[in-house]
Amino acid sequence: MMVESASETIRTTPSNQNGVSSLTSQSDGGGGREGGSNGDTNGEISPVELLHLQQQQQLGSKQLAFQQQLIQMQQLQQQHILNLQRQGLVPMQPTATMQSLQQAMCPSDLQQLWKEVSGVPSSEEALKQGEGLDLSTNSSNSTSAFPKAASAHMPLHSLPNGQGHTPKRDSHEEHSGSHPLYGHGECKWPGCEALCEDMGQFIKHLNNEHALDDRSTAQCRVQMQVVQQLEIQLAKESERLQAMMTHLHMRPSEPKPFNQPLNLASSASLLKRESEAYPEGLPHPPTSAAAPITPILHSHSHSHSHHPHGVGPIRRRNSDKFCTPIASELAQNCEFYKNADVRPPFTYASLIRHAILEAPDRQLTLNEIYNWFTRMFAYFRRNTATWKNAVRHNLSLHKCFVRVENVKGAVWTVDEVEYQKRRPPKMTGSPTLVKNMISGLGFGSLNASYQAALAESSLSLLNPSLVNPSAASLNMLHVGHDDVSSTVEQVNSNSSCSPTLSPQQYSHHVHVKEEPTEIEEDCRPISLLAHVTHSLPMPSDDRDMEEDLPTEDLE
DNA sequence: TGCGATATAAACAGGT
DNA sequence: CACCTGTTTATATCGC
């Protein structure tokens, strides 16, 4: 039975092609989606190893417990990897990430780790000591496995009451408490998930269940190593990004050292806190809005919502809040959304608009919109109950959607003017950021936001609409809500350069510069990207380039 | 706390 | 009658 659980554990090795399904299925909290590949055939590690180990060690019951703990820790690691990926702090490259993790955290490593943690030279020692390894004797630990900074004397309960320096997590956590290990009414300790009604109960639980004992210490160390591995992985990915950008002539004038890639490095440091979100009210670093994040955020952070479905409804409008351009997001995560039963982090209106604008003639029938939804999102394939109604509701409700009688019957188009007016434009984040970003538009300097934007820009390379550097500053100040195409329009709205458009078509956008209030959620890194990419040869055939024509003109 | 945006649910009407 | 399409209303949640 032990072997079964071992293989079951390690089966989480992402061996499926895109790593999506397994991710999803895991993030579903055991939802067991059919999408989860059964690709347990990789077996680079452990089942065999563990089996071998077991045979060698004759498998006393205590050893089994120990092995189980190893496996459990491995599970925890992977769970944390997934969590971090969900939080967008890790590139969604499950294979690479997991592989690297596995390389570092294969059972033998874990055993080594365990030895280091416990000061136990072998698992036989562990056997002698029983499953309660005496971690108080770990004075000689943290040799090579752990950075000094993260070594043992890091107080396991450094956050005794959840106050102080603990960064805020998402708003839900703010509501439910401020302890980073407490949220949604449950303990966030790796693998715990104990329900706690309130903070007091949680503190009690924390002190009782996660006291300074062997297990907690080991888990903490495992977490440290997870973080370390993630940072390594992050550095690699950042380096790759750097190279890509360099190759694409995107490099800013002052290249950063690879080990400090854009803002990703700072994000990496956040991993240590397992921060899920930036403090509310502070400008969200655009890197955090990198495409892979949003789906994860939803599948994870909002899973608390008591929704009958496996994936709950997402009230939070991440695309808005995090300024995720829907086009780049979709471009980036197309396969993810197609395969993962994860609700896309966009509003219905955004999705409908995108669907319509994606159509060759910028118009779709209701049924075609349905089809687009089901084609693009597994979520809508599997959760058919309500969303169609919601789509219809949105079409009717929002003035930006215009019904047009066509030869085909009734089709729906998008009134871009109305869409832009849809919400009172305002800047999410501090006005200071706006100023900084604006001032940062000087082509020479690269402030943090700019660099962060570059990070996301790598995701948005697909967007050829950003070839117009001169419009970028305007673009900064007047952007669409969550869609690249709207950005295009604004770019084009700058009368100075609109090769394909007549200016009057966009006259309604022209004055944005005089209206700081038009600055909208801002941090659209895409705009920033425009500065960097102005010399970048971009394909001009993208539909976004021609997404110029508000279709209400068809009327 | 109020408000706006959004999601969800439902009722209803008209057309096919 | 069933279904689709479209409108409208009500309610709840969330973020500001």
Automatic annotation (TrEMBL):
GO molecular function: DNA-binding transcription repressor activity, RNA polymerase II-specific; RNA polymerase II cis-regulatory region sequence-specific DNA binding; zinc ion binding
Keywords from the UniProt entry: DNA-binding, Metal-binding, Nucleus, Repressor, Transcription, Transcription regulation, Zinc, Zinc-finger
DNA-binding interval(s): 343-416
Compositionally biased region (Acidic residues): 543-555
Assigned GO CC terms: nucleus
CDD domains: FH_FOXP4 (cd20067)
Chief place where the protein resides: nucleus
Residue span of region Disordered: 1-45, 121-179, 535-555
Name of the featured protein: Fork-head domain-containing protein
Lineage: Eukaryota, Metazoa, Chordata, Craniata, Vertebrata
